[in-house]
Amino acid sequence: MNADDLFRAYCSQVLMGCDAVKCDNPFCKSCKDFQFSDISRTDITEKALKMLREHTRSPKLCDHLSPNQLDKNFFTQNIMTSIENFRNIESLTETKLEKSFSNSKYFPFFLLKDKSKYPSDKFNFDDETLIYFYNIVNDNQELFSVCPEYVFTYIVTFTNHISDVTLHNYSTFRAIYVLLFLLSIWKTNDIPNVFKIILDTIINFKHQKTELHQYLIDSYKLTPKVFEKVLDFVHDNLTFFSISEGSDAYSDDCKNMIEFMGLLHQAYPFAPTDLFISQVFTECLMNSHDMLVRFLKGQFSYLNLPYILTLRAKSKALSQYYLFVQDHIANAESSERQRRGENVTRQNMYFYVTVNRDNLIEDTIKKIYNVQSKSFLKTLRVVFEGEQGVDVGGVSREFFYLVCNDIFSPKYGMFSETPNGKFWFTSPFIGRLIDFSVMGTVVGLAIYNSVILPIRFPLILYKKLWNKPLLLEDYAGIDPELVESFHNLRKMRDNGQDISLAEMTFSITRDNYGASEEIPLVKGGLDKIVTNENLEEYIQAYSQYLMVDSIEEQFKKFQTGFDKIMNLNVIISGLQPLNIFKIIAYDEGDILVSGEEIIHWEYLKENAKYTDGYNKDSQAVIWFWEIFDEMTAEQKQQFFRFSTGSDRAPVCGLNNFNLTIQKTNDISKLPVAHTCFNIFSLPDYKTKEEMKHKILISIVNTEGFGLI
């Protein structure tokens, strides 16, 4: 290296730093102990000159300088470093592309956003530029067909020759990001093999505690469109793996793929849950019981990587765990009573809730509020005073339905219905706060006993229960028009309009049981005018009041009741507890509590079973399905609630749900539903008209009628 190049390298070293993740050269800007951090740019040049003079005797040149710091012409020698070289597609030839992509030392510097800022800008990515290249390749596949071979060859060479020095260089990290992006473009039969190689490298980096995984996370945050392409690419490979003969879900290849998916998930933890779920992987290679056993024993389990699993698989594992806990609690209490010489009765083995229909809410509150948390973990059994029904599921479902029907009515005023039919805390509220605690426990009990509730909460409730950060957009589930008005204010500000002319203040006007009340959002808010400059502060204060402050007491009580069950870690010797908050995403909580809206009613017929003399060709069965098809959407929901105790489908809809239609011979009686077993007992009526008349009578009179 001549004197000019050496001087240039020293200047770059002290002005921009080097390529190292952790530099130990105190004469390099990247070192945390940099000697020249407090001097001017002119003085730095003088220091560079001094180091140049002393170079032969006492070299201080950093070992981690990037190639462009050592060679001023480095970036001009290969077309890969700039998108401008690809904009004129007519100027590109296979020979030119082959020459560029065969020179592996340029891969780490592929399509730099600003060459003059590398390595000071460790990322130097531009989402639009990378996607532009992606589209160029897809539109000119024949021209670029020479490139994949060189990419794959470089991956093998690159991963085999990572040294102790390059292991901690940002250019190495950037190369891995670039290679993953290029793999997402060229999908060939060789992809699984080269993808495996690069994944092994990434996982090894992670285990060696380098900063690679954080670098990739930050890179994908900067390039959301590239993130989508890479995520799709990983899904494609996981699907191919899942359907391949002999695939082992617990092999290193599979675990590495899903761990990398977890890295992508960390980049966008609040992205829609279904973005990461692999239905093919879950259905082909996962067994809920096996996952649960592995988890409880502390072995590797995909319940520790829940982002990849369908809600059906996770909820099934959760239900199995709750049944296991219920059995454990019952057996432990039985053993303890026997040890003390006491009798063991059914009352000891279950959590009994005895209520009077005419005093349902007060009885429920008395029974639930002061109960020790451990009692909730027994299997629930509900008894309606004066009634003979034995609860093996159906009575409990009716109990939950009736409690929700009452507590969410205007009579109690605890919850207000939103325009989209969901329920949110009433504010202000002057009733008993303990009622919210009981309601939280009721919701927890429903999950714990696998009962779907006939009410919906906005997703913001689950975000709060799951302790996730709140955003303004979350309130759109309650009042979309208000959220839109905030967006309009931002547009006005961005268009140069003066918001202060509207004379809004940092306050909110609310109805307080008939009286109008103005609440300051900040200290002195009644007199503080909203301006273009403080608009974001106003929106933040308004959001804080609506989503937190105004309903804080109600929510905290509700959360306390909910956590009595959902956050109670049961310690069973040698086994680790399964916590709902760690395996179920907050937006999946809604489906777990309220089920899914039934859209595909045809699955009800497709999956129906018949017993005691009926089959799909029986005249009564044919008539029934004709009657069902003629029903309105509301009548179909009434029928479903009559037959199952809920008007919403269980997790994952009706495609895995079986309704059994049972033949009975007493045509003088109305149809009966055994809700605990999802059995619809249908008399063999003589005419279709009689059948329709009696079915409609039954389904509109469900409470305490025809339910077993």
UniProtKB/TrEMBL annotation:
Looking up SUPFAM superfamilies in the UniProt record yields: Hect, E3 ligase catalytic domain
**Top-tier EC class:** transferase
What the entry lists under CDD domains is as follows:
HECTc (cd00078)
Entry coiled-coil feature ranges: none
Pfam families this protein is in?
Answer: AZUL, HECT
- The annotated active site, in chain numbering, is C676
InterPro entries reported for this sequence? AZUL, AZUL_sf, E3A/B/C-like, HECT_dom, Hect_E3_ubiquitin_ligase
What PROSITE patterns has UniProt attached to this entry?
Answer: HECT
Under the heading Gene3D superfamilies, the entry gives: Hect, E3 ligase catalytic domain, Hect, E3 ligase catalytic domains, Ubiquitin-protein ligase E3A, N-terminal zinc-binding domain (AZUL)
Q: What reaction(s) does this enzyme catalyze?
A: S-ubiquitinyl-[E2 ubiquitin-conjugating enzyme]-L-cysteine + [acceptor protein]-L-lysine = [E2 ubiquitin-conjugating enzyme]-L-cysteine + N(6)-ubiquitinyl-[acceptor protein]-L-lysine
Q: Does the record carry Zinc as a key word? A: no
Q: Which GO terms describe its molecular function?
A: ligase activity; ubiquitin protein ligase activity
Record EC number: 2.3.2.26
Mind listing the UniProt keywords for this protein, alphabetically?
A: Ligase, Transferase, Ubl conjugation pathway
Q: Which residues form the HECT domain?
A: 372-708
Kindly list the biological process annotations in GO that this record carries: protein polyubiquitination
What is the top-level taxon of the source organism? Eukaryota
Q: What is this protein called?
A: HECT-type E3 ubiquitin transferase
